[in-house]
From TrEMBL:
Species of origin: Streptomyces achromogenes
Keywords carried by this UniProt record: Acyltransferase, Transferase
Protein known as: GNAT superfamily N-acetyltransferase
Lineage, opening ranks: Bacteria, Bacillati, Actinomycetota, Actinomycetes, Kitasatosporales
Ranges for domain N-acetyltransferase: 2-145
Matching Pfam families: Acetyltransf_1
Entry-linked InterPro entries: Acyl_CoA_acyltransferase, Bact_Acetyltransf, GNAT_dom
Metal-binding as UniProt keyword: no
Record bears the keyword Acyltransferase: yes
Length: 145
């Protein structure tokens, strides 16, 4: 059975293992101190929020999300990071995390919940195609540095 809820202080090490797995999957290097800073922001819960998924008492998945205003509608909820431990995949963990974030978005009165993934992430996209709609948008990143 998968249980979702907030991260607790005791989850710090397990969270970082999952966060590092996420960053490795997307080939993104993050300095060690950034994990501590992100952990503090997540625990603060005012800017960026987190949801944890547990199976048999162990942390097996994480989701990071945030709310932001938009010009045309009520707030939107952006599911920024979603990662499930490889050993726990295929057991409904990602779906449970998405549903938990969707509940938070509904509670907040957000107009939408959305996320991005890489085009070639076929495993994740198979789930996303079942639980959400793809409307053809493509993301571009303009370099600011």
């Amino acid at each position: 059975m998968i249980e979702t809820g907030p991260l607790g202080p005791e989850d710090r090490a397990a969270w970082e293992t999952l966060a590092r797995g996420y960053k490795t999957f997307y080939r993104t290097e993050v300095p060690a101190e950034a994990y501590e800073a992100t952990w503090r922001r997540l625990r603060d819960g005012t800017e960026v929020r987190a949801v944890a998924a547990r199976a048999e008492g162990s942390l097996v998945g994480i989701a990071h999300y945030l709310f932001h205003s938009t010009a045309w509608t009520a707030d939107s909820c952006y599911l920024q990071d979603l990662y499930v431990d490889e050993a726990a995949r295929g057991r409904g963990v990602a779906r449970a995390l998405i549903e938990r974030v969707a509940g938070a978005a509904r509670e907040r009165g957000a107009a939408r919940l959305y996320w991005t993934t890489q085009e070639g992430n076929a495993t994740a996209r198979a789930l996303y195609d079942k639980v959400a709609g793809f409307h053809g948008f493509i993301r571009y990143d303009y370099p600011l540095a």
